[in-house]
Amino acid sequence: MMETINSSWSEEKIITYFFNYSYTWSEIKLILYLLDFAQKQKIGYVLYQANAMFPSFSFKEGREIGINLNWHNHSSEVPFTIGHEIGHIMSEYRDTKRLNYCRGVGTQITEEMSADIYSLQLLYKYSSAQEDNFYDPLNFIRAYGVPKRMINETYKLFASEEGFFFKPKDSFDQFIIE
């Protein structure tokens, strides 16, 4: 049984934990960045392993997030999920629910899409700080475990930023996935 990681754990203990579960050093550094960002925003966290169908959650009123590390067995999306749940806490949307459970419907609900975009921007900011100069948004998506539902938003982000080298030929409408 996996232990539950919480905001009282030391960085060294978190690193050891993720190494023991075959995460790469790059993934661990990104997770540490996101957890540090959460703490600086006064957001508590719990990372745990539960049934693969049990979603991650955020509790805006309590400024807490919970990340199921086994959600659909998606270890490559763990950083995006952490950013997404932070996005719920940081969102200007007034929570109509006391507890948000994300069930992967990101583009269908405004609040979910807002949290997805927040996470995408956090990962992009981290990538920029690492001087990961991606020429292609799809390589960024693959490298950072961004879900496929975010392809259009990633192209828009790359097109709007001057720090990366991607320049759309005419329009990224050709990449729209329905």
Automatic annotation (TrEMBL):
It comes from the Bacteria. This is Zn-dependent peptidase ImmA (M78 family). It comes from Lactobacillus colini.
